[in-house]
Amino acid sequence: MAAHHPVGVGIIGAGNISDQYLTSLTRYPDLHVAAVGDLDTARAEAQARAYGVKEWGTAADVLAHPDAEIIVNLTVPAVHAEVSSAILAAGKHVWSEKPIALDRADARALLDQAAAAGLRVGVAPDTILGPGLQTALRAIARGAIGSPLSAQTVMQYAGPDLWHPNPEFLFARGAGPLFDMGPYYLTALVCLFGPVSRVAALGSTARTVRTVRSGDRSGTEFAVAVPTHVSALTQFESGGVGQSVFSFDSPLTRTGFVEITGTEGTLVLPDPNTFAGEVRITRVPQRGREAEWETVPPVGVEGGRGLGVLDMARAVRGGTPHIAGGDLGYHVLDTMVSIDEAVTSGETVRVASTVPEIPLVPEDRDPYEATL
């Protein structure tokens, strides 16, 4: 029997999202979590111990760890580019939480740095690798709704200040509902329709000061630096159009709403912030009858956060491209920055970047199989 050689992974950032990553990364046989690092080394130690990781320390400790081939960047958005650049400078591949950076220049510099060093950049969300979106992509590819024409997405609720113990960064530059939650919806739409070519948008800020409502800091006020409601129109190079709402201002919670309408039917996707869920199709009903629905049989194994890290690890060993790559992350960032510019200017903004067609995940891929 051949020896198994999992890819070593380091994690920088031991905040809330690290639980989801560590839960998955420590269960994928093709990965070995070598170390966890954070500015707060006590927090890094607590997370490492909780998930059976043997080493912890500072970010520098993770960068220097000899077993870490890929380092997962789970820091706050404001330092994504800086930390990812340090990871590349240390000779490691980087997987970054979204967004890849706060602006186009920093994102482009990061991709150029990676290319010059022969290293890889991967960017969340990796929910696009799960059975939810993969099932929908296959249904569209086989013509289940005819030619795709338009998309509608909605993500609205009262905001993360309701539940997050330290929500300030989610209302700072590079966050807000557009940059925090937009990547899930826009990445899914790019996978379904192809690159965005231009956008138009309007935005508003309901309150310039918000209050922490949970945890030890409950009652603490903080400033809001971004629009907390954005309504965006997107046009794709393929000719399709989309309309999206991203809001932290709604008492009525509606999240995970994604509908794709084609010439012969409408396809409803599960929440793009999840990896699986029901994919349904309705076709043009006969007059006087309610719409009838069919459920599309799911394809693939669910997995969880870190599925993109696993895909990158297998691709590194196999010498093949990984799916949720830096070019996709850059195009989604470019689209979001363009939407933000459209909110400010009131003008339609062209999206200069593009991205190749995103490949499908092989149907027989199992994240819980040891393949390396």
Automatic annotation (TrEMBL):
Q: Which residues form the Gfo/Idh/MocA-like oxidoreductase N-terminal domain?
A: 8-123
Q: Mind telling me which InterPro entries this protein's record contains?
A: Gfo/Idh/MocA-like_OxRdtase_N, Gfo/Idh/MocA_oxidrdct_glycsds, GFO_IDH_MocA-like_dom, NAD(P)-bd_dom_sf
Keyword list (alphabetical) reads:
Oxidoreductase
Q: Which domain of life is it from?
A: Bacteria
Every copy of the GFO/IDH/MocA-like oxidoreductase domain together lies at: 134-267
For this entry, the protein name equals Gfo/Idh/MocA family oxidoreductase
